């Protein structure tokens, strides 16, 4: 549009100049008309340009994009980034000296160290020339060197910069399948595995496959990880909420899921799938096996695809709970390919925390061959996931074993991280429960606490006056006073009339006491300011 307008203006200006030239040729004694014509043409061009709308406006973009929201990196985080810039340019200008990002599960950004064995293998795969040097054997463990050779032999051209098969490198998928089989006690097939750039693209891929229109619905837990509401919105579907029971430790109750399913169907919505996040995000609960059996039976009976988000499977902090995959539970119940199940895993969570490496996979079972061809086609559009992420996914599911040189150091690093996370979770849980008007369920797993805020009416009224949700109002005030970044519970959805915030347990252990101290001082002042 802008190009055509410019062309019209050019022709207009050219015509005006030709006219003025003809006039000046016959009346050379008076140059003013020519100058006036040129000025008029320039003015017309400027006026025309000022009235042309930009080719893309907020009103003209895809409405599905506008509907999509992702609170984990929303307004509070944007404000935190501005404050961080202010601290860098004007140290001492704020009542704190650093921003503590407790809003997102990004462990290494908060000081967690990567697993040595994983990084050694990655380094050797990325720079294979090191394998031919004598000093490499003094710098790297023998099993890391051996694993790097094994992996390089699987990669076309032994180059991590090369494209791979669209599902991922076959040998790496074999290793992941072996890891799944060892975890569950049931066989896994490499052909069922699609390696992706983290779990998020896999979720998008399944939403793209399942959602045909706004009449297609996806059952999601509330509170939910915003990836699900965002991806459903982007692909034009309808989120069908089912509420977790905070009073029972964020329990998933089948009668609630069934009620929401029936309500959606009564409104003409075809519910395609049930999302279950285990361990929970943002709620931190770990499902009991009996509950998982109910969920599997429900999906089988109702003809729903079970989308199992299992990216926190290594993050279990209580002795009376353990992680069981839905693949394992369904096989124990005697179900095989007759249950449509998609299981998601990521290298970003667990004890590894390799968020920036963007590695993950989905295991797809219970789909007909023609549907699987369509899933592969969608994967092929993106060519392949990054090779470093693929390698990491294979290492996560096939780490050092007893007898390997790195086994003891690997185990010490792994257990050290998980035990520290458990202590941090307990310390923050206790701190929240000691605050006036705050209640917090135990973080049985994952990386978060989701305390409930029982706010005074004056605070709720002040939030309304500021055109903010009460928990967003609280989170903004907390950030401005302490530098602590949390996510308002309203960004995850919640039972109407309740207010929460999500806080990670990821700041390093030596910083937890200072965080608790800052939080306590702020909360006491906040409650006093708005006391009814």
Automatic annotation (TrEMBL):
Residues 157-505 form the Aminotransferase class I/classII large domain. One of its GO terms (molecular function) is L-alanine:2-oxoglutarate aminotransferase activity. CDD domains: AAT_like. Homodimer. Keywords: Aminotransferase, Pyridoxal phosphate, Transferase. Belongs to the class-I pyridoxal-phosphate-dependent aminotransferase family. Alanine aminotransferase subfamily. Its cofactor is pyridoxal 5'-phosphate. Pathway: Photosynthesis; C4 acid pathway; Amino-acid degradation; L-alanine degradation via transaminase pathway; pyruvate from L-alanine: step 1/1. This is Alanine aminotransferase 2. InterPro entries: ALAT1/2-like, Aminotransferase_I/II_large, PyrdxlP-dep_Trfase, PyrdxlP-dep_Trfase_major, PyrdxlP-dep_Trfase_small. It catalyses: L-alanine + 2-oxoglutarate = pyruvate + L-glutamate. It comes from Dioscorea zingiberensis. Transfer of C3 units between the cytosol of mesophyll and bundle sheath cells to maintain a nitrogen-carbon balance in the C4-dicarboxylic pathway. Its EC number is 2.6.1.2. Gene3D superfamilies: 1.10.287.1970, Aspartate Aminotransferase, domain 1, Type I PLP-dependent aspartate aminotransferase-like (Major domain).
């Amino acid at each position: 549009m802008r190009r055509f307008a410019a062309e019209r203006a050019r022709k207009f200006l050219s015509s005006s100049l030709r006219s003025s030239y003809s006039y000046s040729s016959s009346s050379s004694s008076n140059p003013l008309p020519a100058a006036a014509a040129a000025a008029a043409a320039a003015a017309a061009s400027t006026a025309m340009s000022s009235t042309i709308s930009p080719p893309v406006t907020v009103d003209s973009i895809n409405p599905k994009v506008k509907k999509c929201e992702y609170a984990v990196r929303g307004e509070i985080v944007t404000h935190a980034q501005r404050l961080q810039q202010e601290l860098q340019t004007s140290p001492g200008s704020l009542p704190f000296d650093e921003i503590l990002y407790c809003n997102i599960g990004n462990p290494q950004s908060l000081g967690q160290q990567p697993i040595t064995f994983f990084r050694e293998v990655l380094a050797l795969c990325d720079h294979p020339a090191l394998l031919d040097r004598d000093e490499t054997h003094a710098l790297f463990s023998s099993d890391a060197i051996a694993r790097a050779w094994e992996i390089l032999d699987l990669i076309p051209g032994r180059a991590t910069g090369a494209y791979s098969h669209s599902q991922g490198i076959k040998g790496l998928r074999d290793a992941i399948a072996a890891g799944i089989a060892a975890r569950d006690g049931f066989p896994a097939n490499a052909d069922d595995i699609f390696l992706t750039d983290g779990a998020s693209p896999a979720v998008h891929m399944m939403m793209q496959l399942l959602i045909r229109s706004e009449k297609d619905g996806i059952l999601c837990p509330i509170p939910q990880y915003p990836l699900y509401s965002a991806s459903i919105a982007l692909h034009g579907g309808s989120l069908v909420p089912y509420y977790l029971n905070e009073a029972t430790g964020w329990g998933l109750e089948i009668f609630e899921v069934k009620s929401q399913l029936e309500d959606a169907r009564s409104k003409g919505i075809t519910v395609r799938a049930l999302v279950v996040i285990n361990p929970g995000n943002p709620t931190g609960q770990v499902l009991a096996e009996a509950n998982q059996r109910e969920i599997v039976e429900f999906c089988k009976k109702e003809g729903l695809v079970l989308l199992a988000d299992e990216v926190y499977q290594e993050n279990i902090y209580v002795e009376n709970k353990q992680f069981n995959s839905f693949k394992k539970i369904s096989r124990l119940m005697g179900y095989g390919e007759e249950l449509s199940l998609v299981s998601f895993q990521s290298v970003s969570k667990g004890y590894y925390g390799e968020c920036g490496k963007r590695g993950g996979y989905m295991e797809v079972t219970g789909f007909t061959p023609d549907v699987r061809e369509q899933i592969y086609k969608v994967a092929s559009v993106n060519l392949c996931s990054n090779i470093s992420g693929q390698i990491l996914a294979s290492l996560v599911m096939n780490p050092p074993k007893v007898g390997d040189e790195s086994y003891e150091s690997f185990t010490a690093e792994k257990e050290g991280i998980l035990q520290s996370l458990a202590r941090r979770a307990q310390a923050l849980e206790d701190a929240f429960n000691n605050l006036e008007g705050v209640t917090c369920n135990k973080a049985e797993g994952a990386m978060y606490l989701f305390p409930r805020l029982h706010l005074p009416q004056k605070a709720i009224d002040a939030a309304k006056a500021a055109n903010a949700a009460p928990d967003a109002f609280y989170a903004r005030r907390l950030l401005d006073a302490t530098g602590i970044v949390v996510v308002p519970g309203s960004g995850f959805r919640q039972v109407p009339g309740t207010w929460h915030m999500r806080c990670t347990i990821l700041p390093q252990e030596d910083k937890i006491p200072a965080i608790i101290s800052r939080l306590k001082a702020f909360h006491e002042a906040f409650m006093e300011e708005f006391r009814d």
